[in-house]
Design brief:
mainly beta, NA-bd_OB-fold, OB fold (Dihydrolipoamide Acetyltransferase, E2P), 6 strands
Amino acid sequence: MTQLRILVTLTIDSLDSIGTNQLINVFGNIASVSPAVEMNTKTRKLLKEQDCPLCDTNGTCQIVLPEDDIDKLKKGTSYKLIKARLREYS
């Protein structure tokens, strides 16, 4: 039996009700783009990432772009992120 999985586009205020590590679709506007920063992983590998707040009419969430996606999102531009992995960081 084939399992059908449908991803709907969520509003930012509904992300709290979604489980961590789920794939989501979300639409919003990039409020700002931070400079890329280097960070060390738990295995001491040096990686770059970039933070971009994504806003819609219901709220704001933080998008973290990995090395391959740095500088792909532009401030003031609207995007629909498809199959983005939802994470939670403290």
